[in-house]
């Protein structure tokens, strides 16, 4: 399950989280955002509670969109202890997303030594 976070709950759910948080900035009109959602859910399950996955509606949370200088959607931010550890944007293919998620897993495995890498399923991404 992906927790929806707003400007009101962002500090508590993301910045003050005891575990790393993968923030998915998305919008209802973004086709690629809908396409990657199942992969993000699988990624979260593979992380075995080592990473919290949250979604932010970029249109409804303009202050957060501005604060984190979004250039495109979806944009994924890995935030740990209030600090951005990785920024992922501009996915061009399923392999781009797969590599990005594997990089996050490696990063967290290095920091926490609790995650395992598994192969992500194929995803056909199309420009919207």
Automatic annotation (TrEMBL):
Q: Which Gene3D superfamilies match?
A: Glutaredoxin
Q: Which PROSITE patterns match?
A: THIOREDOXIN_2
- Report TM segments: none
Keyword Hydrolase annotated: no
Keywords per UniProt: Redox-active center
Thioredoxin domain mapped to chain residues: 1-106
Annotated family: Belongs to the thioredoxin family.
The name under which this protein is listed is Thioredoxin family protein
